[in-house]
């Protein structure tokens, strides 16, 4: 195995360059990951209809994010401790963390598959899914959950590679699987007329490919994070540490999803045209979320490795640089989406009512994107240092709870998609202010005191 004593550019190199070198592969990877579901939505929207479009994106996407998001958040604990162990050169602990993380993803995938298949009919009805969408939605979501094990294996494996500073190979694997997904979408939906079943099948077959590629990389490497299948097992102490750090992120993801489900219920009550517009807008604003999410992942890995190496001053400089880069990118993205969003909408549908509702929503929401930047950068940075609970509480109360209060007590007064969507910028503003106060006045990092570390 290679010796981890070699120079590590993340802990040694020029900060802004290292962040961007790490960020861009993650951004492109997130883009291709987003294309999984986006390709499904575009193809069924154009060749099956707006009912199928609504089913593939809106209601089913919210439920999928609820379950998958919890596990991905939970597994972020593995990314944090692996980046810290790698930065601090704790090789034995790194080995145990990698094998525990992969075993955990297999078990988690099996559990989520059963939960998703069994309970999806009840969940779709509880969300007031329109009847003309229900059959499509149930078919798609059940097929999708059949691929949970490879889905989570890829996410965990990619997280391990990113934790040690490799953001390029996850990108290559996503490109390969995404191209496969698009080809299979066209073959199954357009060629074989399999509708949403074909779209779901194309997605899970592509996820199998990405899982195989990332596991192959972990098994064949000569570096210290090498995966050996015969040593694959849960190390209880390491699993506890992963959950201890990852559970706040998982809970935060669940709270986000629950609040989004409640928002989706409000949207569903406005009819199929609005649901289709909301679904399509979600694909378009996904361009912003994948950009900011990639910067958040870069921040987590950068802070994790430098924190593990004991370089606290470099941690603070990294956070400031992330904030500046994310702000500039958000302004550029917001302008582009505001001006050219209509052309992206037309890739999904030509329905006049859907386009009208969608553009009203887009022009209302895009100028508020800048309000979310401090939430993503501060929460990602603090998570990299292992400070997870207070950021989770700030986000859950500031974003999720307030959003639910808005939808229950204020949204019913007006049957307008913009009135429902107002809960997003409102809660972003409040939560960003709370993060700024916490980081500069109360956080462990700002006090210059290292968090208590355990194996």
- Let me know the largest β-sheet: none
Low-confidence region ranges: 1-6, 449-455
Q: What structural category do the secondary elements indicate?
A: mainly alpha
Compute the separation of the termini in Å.
Answer: 22 Å
Percent helix range = over 70%
Give me a quick take on this structure.
82% of the residues lie in helices and 0% in strands. It has helices at residues 9-12, 15-47, 50-88, 91-126, 131-145, 148-163, 168-191, 195-220, 236-268, 272-308, 312-348, 352-365, 373-384, 389-409, 417-421, 423-442.
What does this molecule look like?
- This protein is an all-alpha fold and 455 residues long.
- It is built from 16 helices and no strands.
- It has helices at 9-12, 15-47, 50-88, 91-126, 131-145, 148-163, 168-191, 195-220, 236-268, 272-308, 312-348, 352-365, 373-384, 389-409, 417-421, 423-442.
- α3 runs parallel beside α5 (131-145) and α11 (312-348) runs antiparallel to α12.
- It is globular.
Keywords:
455 residues, globular, 82% helix, mainly alpha
């Amino acid at each position: 195995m290679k010796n981890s004593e070699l120079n590590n550019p993340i802990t040694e190199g020029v900060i802004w360059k290292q962040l961007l070198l790490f960020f861009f592969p993650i951004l492109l990877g997130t883009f291709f990951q987003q294309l999984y579901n986006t390709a499904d939505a575009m193809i069924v929207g154009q060749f099956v209809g707006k009912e199928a479009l609504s089913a593939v994106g809106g209601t089913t996407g919210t439920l999928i994010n609820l379950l998958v998001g919890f596990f991905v958040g939970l597994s972020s604990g593995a990314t944090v401790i692996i980046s810290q162990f790698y930065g601090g050169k704790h090789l034995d602990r790194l080995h145990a963390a990698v094998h525990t993380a992969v075993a955990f993803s297999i078990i988690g995938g099996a559990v989520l598959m059963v939960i998703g298949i069994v309970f999806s009919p009840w969940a779709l009805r509880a969300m007031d899914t329109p009847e003309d969408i229900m059959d499509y939605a149930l078919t798609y979501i059940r097929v999708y959950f059949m691929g949970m094990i490879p889905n989570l294996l890829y996410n965990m494996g990619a997280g391990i590679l990113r934790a040690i500073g490799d953001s390029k190979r996850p990108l290559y694997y996503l490109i390969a699987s995404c191209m496969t997904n698009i080809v299979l979408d066209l073959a199954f939906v357009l060629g074989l007329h399999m509708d949403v079943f074909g779209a779901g099948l194309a997605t899970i077959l592509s996820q199998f490919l990405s899982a195989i590629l990332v596991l192959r990389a972990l098994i064949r490497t000569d570096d210290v994070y090498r995966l050996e299948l015969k040593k694959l097992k849960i190390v209880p102490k390491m699993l506890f540490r992963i959950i201890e750090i990852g559970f706040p992120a998982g809970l935060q993801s669940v709270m986000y999803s629950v609040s989004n489900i409640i928002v989706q219920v409000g949207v569903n009550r406005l009819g199929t045209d609005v649901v289709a517009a909301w679904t399509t807008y979600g694909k378009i604003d996904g361009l912003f979320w994948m950009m900011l999410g990639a910067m958040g992942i870069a921040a987590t890995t950068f802070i994790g490795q430098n924190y593990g190496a004991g370089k606290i001053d470099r941690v603070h400089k990294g956070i400031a640089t992330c904030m500046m880069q994310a702000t500039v990118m958000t302004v550029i993205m917001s302008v582009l989406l505001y001006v050219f969003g209509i052309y992206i909408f037309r890739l999904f549908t030509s329905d006049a009512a859907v386009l009208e509702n969608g553009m009203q929503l887009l022009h209302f929401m895009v100028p508020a994107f800048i309000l979310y930047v401090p939430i993503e950068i501060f929460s990602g940075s603090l998570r990299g240092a292992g400070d997870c609970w207070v950021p989770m509480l700030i986000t859950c109360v500031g974003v999720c709870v307030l959003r639910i209060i808005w939808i229950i007590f204020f949204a019913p007064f007006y049957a307008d998609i913009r009135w429902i969507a107002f809960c997003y910028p409102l809660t972003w503003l409040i939560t960003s202010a709370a993060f700024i106060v916490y980081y500069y006045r109360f956080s462990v990092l700002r006090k210059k005191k290292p968090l208590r570390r355990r194996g």
